[in-house]
Amino acid sequence: MKVTIYDVAEKASVSISTVSKVLNEKGNINEKTKQRVYDAIKALDYKPSVVLSVQKAMKTIGVLIPDIANPFMAEVTRAVEDSGRKKGFNVMICSTDNDPDKEEEYITMLQQKYLDGMIIATGLKNSRALNKLKKSEVPVVLLTRDVPKFPAHSVMVDDFQGGYDAGTYLAELGHKRVAALMEDVDVPSIKQRFYGLKEALQACNVPMTEASTRYAPHSLAESKQAALDLLSQEITPTAIFASTEILAVGVLQAAKEKGLKVPEDLSVIGFDNSILAQVTDPQLTTIGQPAQKMGEKAIELFVEELLDKKEKEEKIVQRLVLTPSLIERESTARLT
User: Fold this and answer.
1) Which of the residues 14, 104, 224, 320 has the least number of beta carbons within 10 Å of its own beta carbon?
2) 1-57: which CATH number, 1.10.260.40, 1.10.8.870, 3.40.50.300, 2.40.420.20?
3) In the CATH hierarchy, which fold is given to the domain comprising 159-289?
4) What is the pTM of this model?
5) For 315-328, what is each residue's pLDDT tens digit?
């Protein structure tokens, strides 16, 4: 297997950034550390890339996202790319398909490319990948998903508040049988949406049980099947909250197959406010995340992180939590 800069850093017991500085003859690295790096290179027979210095001269950010097919994630990524280019950065996008192994592979690859840093929206579920980032000196900003065990600047929406707003809205429309279709991933943002929904419904004396909750992967086919299961119960819901708009579309498809009209027979509310919410029939009522602002703020925090590292200032971790908004369209109605 090809020897990588990560292998050299591990053998020399230094960071990837230190190996990079030694190879580029930059930075104030003491002779003892340099020698350890040279010894590791020799022992491993490491062959540095001939384009090393060219890559290092370019200002590039690696952006790690869970699923490029997710319309909302595509919009956030576009906002990051546009804002980054205005600041003079190239942006390299990697989609993990919610696969922890891919997450680790991409992080290792991005570290080897001598990027200026990373913006990560995957939630860092791979513990090895998380440890690699902790050991490195690469600037990182977290986007859309928080990672409690990783002290980095982050930008996200108040997912709990979004779920709470959805629950309150449905209760105010008179719905007493509310179901939830949640994305089947172990990430705090999705859990917080569910917790917010439950708390709002409880506050409005609307029961929420395990029987009224289903989980599905982020796919139309499986979300439709999960929604069909909900709509096939003896006591069916009059409203369904979907934790993403892909899942909400699955609910719309299931309702159509069951011969139910939306919103006359069933109200549906999603989460994100991507372009998808505007092209469905009927158009989706949804909890909106400010995609453009999230991308802009991620770049702003990234630039701050670069300056802090350059000036060797003590890092104060910033956690920006943006406010979601209820966007009422055609897929919800008052229960009559």
Assistant:
1) 320
2) 1.10.260.40
3) Rossmann fold (3.40.50)
4) 0.80
5) 688 999 999 999 99
